[in-house]
Amino acid sequence: MPGERIILIGRLAGAHGMRGGLKLISYAESLDVFAAGLPVRARSVDGAEAVYEVGEVRPQGRGAVLFLAGITHRSQAEALVGCDLFIEKATLPALPEGTYYWADLVGLEVVSVDGRSLGWLESILETGSNDVYVVKGAGKEILIPALKSVVKAVDLAARRMRVDLPEGLDQE
């Protein structure tokens, strides 16, 4: 899969059982992303990569158990513990207009409605009511609620997000 855009969707946290199951920490909103037959790229901390096909995924507690084609023994699963899992972005379903994958938002420049650069969207925090954008720039961090009343425009082509900061957050 060289040259294709890939995104991080999970990490293999441990072996599960004797038949090659893997404890999965999913970064996806839904386990539906891990559809049977989906090719996933496992990348170890030393950069080694291998492509596997998803066999099955089962929710378990706060995580899930993932079975990959060809991984049938615990020792094979143990060799994959710690690997990050990536998929081709093109395999993700299209989103309704005005909604975005986190991977598309992280790295955007964030500017105020009056044109001031506030920094770069570094990460996103998931909360119970709404997501929160962590924006870093000029030696400071701003936490911006991901609300329609705050986020006025997202331009993925220009890699920019325009926001109207709520009172109290708008500090120069």
Can you put this structure into words, describing what you see?
There is one protein chain. This protein is 5% helix and 46% strand. By secondary structure, it is mostly beta strands. β7 and β8 form a beta hairpin.
Topology:
Elements: E1 6-16, E2 21-26, E3 39-43, E4 49-60, E5 63-68, H1 74-78, E6 84-88, H2 102-105, E7 109-112, E8 117-125, E9 132-137, E10 140-145, E11 151-155, E12 160-163
Parallel strand pairs: 7-12
Antiparallel strand pairs: 1-2, 1-6, 2-5, 3-4, 3-6, 4-5, 7-8, 8-9, 9-10, 11-12
Query: Which percent range fits the helix content?
Result: under 10%
SSE class = mainly beta
Uncertain regions spanning at least 5 consecutive residues:
none
Number of strands: 12
What is the overall pLDDT average?
Answer: 90
The string of secondary-structure elements, in order, is EEEEEHEHEEEEEE
User: In percent terms, what proportion of residues is strand?
Assistant: over 45%
Strand order of the largest sheet: 1-2-5-4-3-6
Q: What is the gyration radius calculated from CA atoms?
A: 19 Å
* Biggest pleated-sheet summary: 6 strands, antiparallel, barrel
Q: What key attributes describe this structure?
A:
six-stranded mixed β-sheet, elongated, 172 residues, six-stranded antiparallel beta barrel, mainly beta
Describe what is shown at a glance.
The N and C termini lie far apart (45 Å). With 172 residues, the protein is mainly beta. The chain has two helices and twelve strands; from the N terminus they run βββββαβαββββββ.
